[in-house]
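#struct-pred

JT: dropping the chains for the assembly here, can someone run the whole complex?
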Amino acid sequence: MNVTKILQSVKNEELSIAEASKQLSGFSELGFAKVDTQRKARNGYPEVIYGEGKTVEQISAITEDLLKDKKTILATRVSLEKAHVLKNEFPEGYYYEAARCFVLNPTSKSSENYIAVVTAGTSDISVAEEAAVTAETFGNSVKRIYDVGVAGIHRLFANLDDIKNASVVIVIAGMEGALVSVVGGLVDKPVIAVPTSVGYGTNLDGITALFSMLNSCSSGVSVVNIDNGFGAAYNASIINKIREGE
Amino acid sequence: MNVTKILQSVKNEELSIAEASKQLSGFSELGFAKVDTQRKARNGYPEVIYGEGKTVEQISAITEDLLKDKKTILATRVSLEKAHVLKNEFPEGYYYEAARCFVLNPTSKSSENYIAVVTAGTSDISVAEEAAVTAETFGNSVKRIYDVGVAGIHRLFANLDDIKNASVVIVIAGMEGALVSVVGGLVDKPVIAVPTSVGYGTNLDGITALFSMLNSCSSGVSVVNIDNGFGAAYNASIINKIREGE
Amino acid sequence: MNVTKILQSVKNEELSIAEASKQLSGFSELGFAKVDTQRKARNGYPEVIYGEGKTVEQISAITEDLLKDKKTILATRVSLEKAHVLKNEFPEGYYYEAARCFVLNPTSKSSENYIAVVTAGTSDISVAEEAAVTAETFGNSVKRIYDVGVAGIHRLFANLDDIKNASVVIVIAGMEGALVSVVGGLVDKPVIAVPTSVGYGTNLDGITALFSMLNSCSSGVSVVNIDNGFGAAYNASIINKIREGE
Amino acid sequence: MNVTKILQSVKNEELSIAEASKQLSGFSELGFAKVDTQRKARNGYPEVIYGEGKTVEQISAITEDLLKDKKTILATRVSLEKAHVLKNEFPEGYYYEAARCFVLNPTSKSSENYIAVVTAGTSDISVAEEAAVTAETFGNSVKRIYDVGVAGIHRLFANLDDIKNASVVIVIAGMEGALVSVVGGLVDKPVIAVPTSVGYGTNLDGITALFSMLNSCSSGVSVVNIDNGFGAAYNASIINKIREGE
Amino acid sequence: MNVTKILQSVKNEELSIAEASKQLSGFSELGFAKVDTQRKARNGYPEVIYGEGKTVEQISAITEDLLKDKKTILATRVSLEKAHVLKNEFPEGYYYEAARCFVLNPTSKSSENYIAVVTAGTSDISVAEEAAVTAETFGNSVKRIYDVGVAGIHRLFANLDDIKNASVVIVIAGMEGALVSVVGGLVDKPVIAVPTSVGYGTNLDGITALFSMLNSCSSGVSVVNIDNGFGAAYNASIINKIREGE
Amino acid sequence: MNVTKILQSVKNEELSIAEASKQLSGFSELGFAKVDTQRKARNGYPEVIYGEGKTVEQISAITEDLLKDKKTILATRVSLEKAHVLKNEFPEGYYYEAARCFVLNPTSKSSENYIAVVTAGTSDISVAEEAAVTAETFGNSVKRIYDVGVAGIHRLFANLDDIKNASVVIVIAGMEGALVSVVGGLVDKPVIAVPTSVGYGTNLDGITALFSMLNSCSSGVSVVNIDNGFGAAYNASIINKIREGE
Amino acid sequence: MNVTKILQSVKNEELSIAEASKQLSGFSELGFAKVDTQRKARNGYPEVIYGEGKTVEQISAITEDLLKDKKTILATRVSLEKAHVLKNEFPEGYYYEAARCFVLNPTSKSSENYIAVVTAGTSDISVAEEAAVTAETFGNSVKRIYDVGVAGIHRLFANLDDIKNASVVIVIAGMEGALVSVVGGLVDKPVIAVPTSVGYGTNLDGITALFSMLNSCSSGVSVVNIDNGFGAAYNASIINKIREGE
Amino acid sequence: MNVTKILQSVKNEELSIAEASKQLSGFSELGFAKVDTQRKARNGYPEVIYGEGKTVEQISAITEDLLKDKKTILATRVSLEKAHVLKNEFPEGYYYEAARCFVLNPTSKSSENYIAVVTAGTSDISVAEEAAVTAETFGNSVKRIYDVGVAGIHRLFANLDDIKNASVVIVIAGMEGALVSVVGGLVDKPVIAVPTSVGYGTNLDGITALFSMLNSCSSGVSVVNIDNGFGAAYNASIINKIREGE
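RK: done, full complex below.
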């Protein structure tokens, strides 16, 4: 945020005092929300809209506010119903149904360094798609490698080169999460593990997969919250940008 | 228990009424314990002494009672201190320090069908030895395969033939217990998993390894209590006897 | 998998390169799934379809793939709705409603050695049927002994001979799971315990029954996940095959 | 508490104002404690001293205060060290080491109706003794039936008459606590269950036994806190007094 | 069960062999259930039907079987829908909606000794009614004292005489369950505590109330499972019968 | 409660004996509830109606009873459906939809000392509104400061003066609840923290936010139950009255 | 912190640049710690030293740093061993053994408005003393009311006036924590509840008391961490200052 | 691992068959351990010795084996006692007492890109030192920023530049772990969070800090196991190497 430039614009009457004041404050006051307009400057990415606890009106209002600065818009955990409304209001937007993400102005891809998104099973795919769409929206290349859980470990070995050559590896697994440790023992890249709530009984809605991953006997593994495909991709994206020298 | 034979012996005055009464009741009354003298007839193995909550005097008294019938004696969770006392009283006994087991009259080995005892790490060895000594005391052959955890999965593959050719496979692991799922996906023998309390933080004293194993994506796995090497070997032994046609 | 034979067939143009490549890889790539075509060779049983997290289209596609090799098909946790669709597509299939299993090409029974499926109560029967149908689909004889919980323990004793003469005993119980310990103390066969989520309050959706079974004072007991009738039968089936000398 | 009588005694100068005031307040102020002198009038039994969190000086001071009214003194959870000091100060007191109870002026037994104290194993005996000594101190007859756990259920049946003929049955068990349900299904007397912290792994220091007992499939069972032998006996004693028409 | 009499009836052809065999076995085999016909002889009360996990057809079949012996029928946790069906089939039955109990042939009241059913709040009433109806069906007098929680403790004191004069006191409370300790400190009768799942957040569906009650600083309290009004009344009924000299 | 005055009124026949008796008892007996009519005298505020477990008829009856004394009525956790009915019966009442509160006769504001109600996110607003409406109904001024969570901490600093100048600060946050510690470290007023159930996975329905707040490294923080906006405002109101010299 | 004054002092060479720089930074850099020198200005009280995780050398160094500004020093959770060392280095300091607090330069008492510190039992006293000493060190009057738990509720009523007349009430209880709800229902002052780890079994080291208090049916209660006597007193002190018009 | 080169050496008799066989197998068989000699080739770093569950003899033997290849040796969780023995055997090694790490042949630093190691409090320093020493041993520059927890948030802002300019940020915090979210909201670098077991009561040995961090409202945060300073540094090191173009 260039303070001098803002003040100059006010002086030149190119910028209203209300708008200048908002730009200096670093957030837009919407009453129900204070949209963080400095997020990209501070964190490298603009504010992402977590759709679950918000009404479609709230998502829409925040989107509109962020669009003023032509920011990349990513709204996660958006239901099909809400997506229909958003699509109507923002026809240039795109809804990824499996990922439950609504995207506007995605960042264009900057290189062929890719993030590998690996799942243990078929039921983990919705979390994987949230990760993949997030990473792509943030300008990363992504390679999807699904259903290579350790019950049939030859499926993993058949895809090992694609995993080893990635910039960062996201491993997504429910049940006992054993795939994370196996992958972690075979690669020299950062592994970001996402436990999923897939399973029953002692899976405890993903707590077991989470604890399993935190206890991984393989060293280069860090973990995000259960079903948090977005968070894993966000982290992977930061790391991938490092490789690209940003 | 042959009732007619007992009664005949009483009639012939070959057996005291007190002893006959005890044999018919199926247990020896020691006051603090009622030693189950019919356990072998019912379950295939004589009563095993769980040493943890018992004084050395109690272990000794139960041992003495079981010895009357020349039974195989196995006392588990016996500390070194208690073992010294027991060794003094029963010089023909043997104390396995790593396994913390005291053994008398072990059953002789009946065949070359073996139980594989596999561990993920070095710290799991004490539980593994409890399992191995139990299995050997009950007359089984045992093959020990230690420290083949998935962080270096080539160590497992180098030992896979020995695991595949076993009659039953006991897999012992702490931390995240991923080894169980990998082994379970590679063999067609019963896999009995033993979670250990090895680990820290979210390992929760073995609960995470346990839940992980119960959620294994591999199908032929059943599980026993945390650190219960004895229980795994007991089960494996019953199954191994089936193979031997008993 | 006979590699030489596959290569010979390619040479003879009896096998397309695509098909040969799939056979050598050991799995069929369906995009959302990598169907494990070597499972039977490795584990003794073909891949089983866990129906819960899958759409009926996914179940159907995997079924079709497995059918190419005329494999025994077992899909578990299949709802009545999905079953109607599957039945339409695979008219020779059979849906077991109580067990929620869809079966095609069941293995024919090989002997009279049977697996006993024992329940504590009436509410445990759906889990028991999953176990029984799984075992039968895999070619085992099964004897069902339902509602013999310890609140009326004479019901158990009246059926004890059938339990004792089984090859393997599966005991299924919710609430406090006490039946497992009583049965475990009376038989010399492997006992596989299945905790169920039947109960309320401190039952904690089956966790209490599970922990109870893992702490059983009877020795020959191993445990599978809550409500996992399939897993218990899979294990029992492996053990029963041992008895039959396979 | 007869208020008129107290006031009369004050008037007659037979009672100091300090003492009268204390009697009317219903407790003795010791600074660190307010000893409840009306407990017997309200609850049927005088205040019992829980020894665990208290110094021996505190136990001693409360004992002295209670002795003024010649009350029955029961101090539970008293260590051997504290007991030596107490025994010195109150030579007529008796210390039950296994029960860890210090007793003075026990109530004399009023009838032959007895409380059965039943344990599953040998390691449960210390809790059982706390129960038995409490019941005896409160004037009840007690029958001890130890080590009749369900792993050898014939030991229970051999003692069933003694259990059935009791006025109240206290069942004490650790591990999975299955004994409670079996006994509960065989008697028509109140069964008070005491879970113990005996066991390891998923026993969770007695929580599993506790939850198991609360989920008992047998109906006439109520439960007290883990290792709370005292509480079970207190309840049993109240019930036994009912039978005796008190 | 009079064996001689049954055999005599068979001999006299007054009893079919099928019926005699069932009477001797002690249960009726219904396939999905083994109805315990000796429950009353053993436990003092006939088998009670827990309605939750059962279809209305199963409840109906068990009811029919129990009716053959003109037993008192109590089915708990019966929904309104199931009740309509049952009422149709057994028009002489009565459905208590608040208690969710279906009753046939209630035992007639034997004395004026009553069980007090006390609740902390209005939301605990459904559990309280299950307790009250159970107690009444088993022939006890009941006094209901509702909404006397400690936030307004004068409401409790205004009803204390009715509580003190009861034979047994059932205290039902959710949230923090404090009422149990206060009542326990004021009466000399057995107090049976029922935690309810009333509350939110850290109430944990009644676990907090349960643990609170198990830790009560008042001594004469025992506890049953969360929301288990039936179990409390069953216990209270056994104790009340003792007072009546049964 | 002026006893003399009540008795005088009875004597003068200005008050019926029934009504006098109710006033002296301190509660109104409604059968399903005993409405605490002395709550305001004892606690400073009249009884508040917790709407969740109650039927609209019950809420209505209690409201009517409280209205007799012209008390301020606050019913919390009232659904929109119930509110329609209440609004019909009590047209002068007002329903706050976001707060889910029904209010009648709110206390008029007494001063400009205000309570700050601060939230971390947009999804916490419903809990915040319950707090704000409660505080306003009890006569407090309220300042709402929403969506100032630490992910964009400049939003908090921009509002810090309003927070610092409050009489009491209520901080409402889900997820990890970090806002509480940051605010606690910046103000010298009492901070009352309300964890919300906003979040997923390891949020555990608010338990994580709760435990986080209880462990706050900032000292002047106390905590109420998860989502308990009412409780926080009740506490804040008591404290605010102190400032106003009440 | 008066910035102008500091700069003036630097200019006048009354203050070294190093010291001025530290004063402006708001903390003293000790390497292992950054002592917060602005805490009193921000929060009303200087930084308190939590002694548990710190060596006596660290406590001593922080004390020395704080003493430079003649601040009130309070170090909590200080063991007797550490206290001896501190007493040697700071002879004017005082160690409160029961409270485990080391105090220097306590604030002098400003009024007779007092904080009531109430405990349920004798074992809660160490936590109570931490609260009382903290409050007194911060310049508050304190009234101690110990051992008034609800098992003998008349002891509470005998002390109710002292509780009602307090400015703030701290209630400290372990086990089931019922005292909090009873007190909360009887007073119109803020009640700050401190759960203690006193108890056993399902007390879960104080978690049960904590959850119980958070679920209190009485409204004006807020809670601090288990055994956190200091935190309760800190809060109470802030509130008490409000009454005193600070 | 260059297979051809190994075989050539065998042919040339430059390498014994035993040694070649070990090199080809990828691990050294020590009986109690299978040292992974390919770890560096696969994962970028040689096998690290976790010292906790191992005897000093075991640590020593593994060290010796790894030294043959002149590998960097890092043994973590090594007690002072074990360190004395190791220092004796490997005099060129260095023991970092605060970090509890034993190091031999550390990798030399390759650049000035540094990893920031940030702690909330003084008690978190031992975990921080494990992280810092690990990172340095692996050739990274490290900047330590200790005791900047949010209770005095100006301490954090005073050090923000050093944090923002790091390559990767490790944030270490116990209690409620709020520092992680605040830092995460202010930087555009990967943040690896380490929860510590520092705290008491509801801290639950670090589980609360862990869950708090997993629920962080800031996006670029991933988490490792409780107290796992090593794991955080391992991850940070992999990422830092990416920046350095490795």
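JT: nice. The mean pLDDT of chain D is 94. The longest strand of chain D covers residues 114-119.
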